Amino acid sequence: MFSDDEEAEIAVDIRRVYAARVPPCSLGQKEPIKPLLQSARNKDPSVVSSHYDPAKKRLFFGLDNGAVCFWPLTESEPNSSRFVGAHGGPVTAICIPRRSDGDLGKSGLIVTGAVDSSIKIWDYQGKVILNPTVCVQTLYGHSGTVTSLVILGDYIVSSSTDGSIKMWRQEEGRGQLVYPWFELQATVTGMDGWVRCMTYDSSNDVGELGAIFAADESGSVTKLMPEALWDDSIQRLSTRMEFKVVHRVERLHDRGISTIRFVAKWDLLLTVAFDNCIRAYDVRTSSVRHCWVNERQCQFTALEVNTEFDEVLAGDAQGVLSIYSVLTGRLMVTKLLTQQPSGAGGAPRRGATPGGGASSVLSITAVLGRQLYAVMTAHDLGLWQIEHELDYNVARGGHEKAVISLYSCSGGVAGPSGDHDYRIFSASLDNTMRLWDPYDMACIRVMDEVKSEVSAMTFYEGWNILVTGHDNGDIRLWNLDTSNTVTLRQHNNTVTSLTLALVHRNEELLISSSYDGWVILWDIRSLRGEEPHMVAKFRAHGLEAARAAMSGSGVAGEGAASQRPSATGATVSHGSATMTATPAITTTTVSAVPPGSAGAAGASGEAPRAALTFPEPEILALRFDPLKKAIVTAGTDKVIKVWAAAGYDFLGSHSGHKDAVTCLALDSNFLFSGSDDCTICLWDTVPAGGQKTHYAGARLTAVGAGLSGAGSGPPPAPASLTLKAPFSSRPLKVLSGHRKSVTGLDVLPSSGNLVSCSLDGQLLVWDYVAGQVLHRFAHDTEAFRCLALRYDRPEVLVGTMQASLLRYAVHESAVAVPGLSRKGPSRPDGTVAAVQEAVEALSLAGGAEDSDR
């Protein structure tokens, strides 16, 4: 977020409770509106103005056909709308008096103004038995459209397009009458053109009567102060008031002001104009405190305030709600509230413009309970709940498209000052990488990629290098100290995963994987003047693995080819796939089935057909296990493969998922995998034991002679070679809790609990030994794409498909299993073995069932 004040960083969740449509004809109407008022017979009536009565929980609205109606609101579904009365033209202003507003409030009357320049006072309670609605009085005095109404005590203040403001006062001496009677008392003129809107508010201090602000089409604002008059006959202040023009702000906007709102608690005057911006004018200092420009470059059409959370809510012509913080002056969140107007059966509504997009927000009004708002468009009513008491925060102001990768620094020493480095990096489909300040989660640096789409990201903390993978197979190294970039090219398809691995002592390499099925190891450090270069490359998933499986090995994925340059510049090949030798390259081949056998012939014939029938497997996830010195890969072939980091030999595979494996995580000896099948599987990364197979040296020699190129013979084979057969394992445990694809996994450092996120908008904290969900964070409107754990505080960062960066506080005491710590320096000896025994014991009963799958 944007403030050091944690209270100002609370996230906002916006969800719709229900929606209703404006009916062509409301209930309670004694007789149809005259045809003269229905100016467009083929057009449904549209809402022009609205006002909420908190005492009776009614939302009044005026239509363009002259009708005045209301909805009795509830928190479930609204009741049918009711008809009040009709003007001779569109109803442009509605005002409901408060109970403290003299006889108007006591009688529960309704005051409306319209294009016909008249002001009508209605009694819907029905003091006349034969008709539930009575037009008490019609006030004539304006010569133009009545634009707004304010009720203050015994006064009705009205503004009009005739450029005047009129004060109507209740006439005295008529206490015996059923209804109060109003007469014109004063007129304020001198405005620059139309008076478009007015607002009133009071601090409720003793003796303080508040202030009225009126805005005109020139962008200026006039302040009127009511003052109570002294009555000599009773020697006290009377109910009579005098309205004085005390201040005028010239040209607050460059264009006409359409909406105005005075908030006495903040000493702020909020104005919306046709220049697509909102200005917060401080009435004490006579200066503009905030100016908010609509990021969609369209007009704001509605305004509401939330004094509890110090927020300004604004709706615009594209149907989007924007919430601004008054304390920080920043945009907090946006939400699309409306859709394209439609009629019955999804057809376009009569009178709607084809391709016009979402409906404009006409009004936003706080109604019913706390944090409930009625949002009205020209044809629809929606009740929305804006929830603030959430268990996550939002870092906004960053990406515009889906966040695909997050990286949180582990706290190493950064720079000569010796400060700990807890910076956070994010990458998005908007082709930007952003650096976030861990203190207040403010975006402090943006790096733009212009050549290709970003598909993966990691960070080399020791050398301050940001590494990104791209959809064209490139890997880009961003030196944050010098702002230089280096491009590495070896992959021929989208780079899907990047990780750093301490393969050997003082040798930290970058490992990359791609849709092309290859895994490549890079040395990206510029030591001894040596440029970043490829160290090794081997095929982990693809056609070679399928050919080896068909040749009779019986192990899925066995026999993938690998290449690594030797100290002399030669290329050494491992596995059962062959590499063609040249005079400059010596090749040694180890094959489980001799060439020329039936198995080999079958493989050569079946492999092309398999390639035509099935798409090439793609690598989606990659991890390096520092304990086992192993590289783990997984992808669309539903199989997890394990490779030795020294020599890149194929160690074995894990099978059990029913769909593509999308993410991996490690915790000591345990491997976790998430999949498109919505499950999480627990594995022993490299199972102990395994059958050993002996091969004779003559057989190896024959194999080498049959596959080597002309002019070069195979190297001498040893007398015997002992190989450990690749393992093939089933999951120790299967965790089911997500409804959509699992996209992110990690392990909390102190408790050892597993954290997972999914496209279903859930962040789950697991006790994976018991297979139970300890805590569930849910977000209905976001699809979670990736996650990262912070090392400076108990917090999980989640990137979403909706371009949000969410922050979930995960307190270890609340989600840890009592008496069991599975990770960290305080881990007791033998804990890993104890946990493994517990997992194996829990999985014994379901092992047979898993095998049947």
TrEMBL record:
Biased composition (Polar residues) is annotated at: 563-576
List UniProt keywords, sorted A-Z.
Answer: Nucleus, Repeat, WD repeat
For the region Disordered, give the residue spans: 556-579
Q: Where in the cell is it found?
A: Nucleus, Nucleolus
Q: Name one Pfam family in it.
A: WD40
GO CC terms in record: nucleolus
> GO biological process annotations for this chain's record?
ribosomal large subunit assembly
Q: What is its main location?
A: nucleus
Map the WD repeats onto residue numbers.
Answer: 109-123, 139-178, 447-488, 488-526, 612-643, 654-684, 735-776
UniProt keyword Magnesium, yes or no: no
Q: Which domain of life is it from?
A: Eukaryota
Q: Which InterPro entries does the UniProt entry name for this protein?
A: WD40/YVTN_repeat-like_dom_sf, WD40_PAC1, WD40_repeat_CS, WD40_repeat_dom_sf, WD40_rpt
Identification of the protein by name:
Outer row dynein assembly protein 16
Task: Please report the organism this UniProt entry assigns to the protein.
Answer: Tetrabaena socialis
Could you read off the lineage of the organism from its UniProt record?
Eukaryota, Viridiplantae, Chlorophyta, core chlorophytes, Chlorophyceae
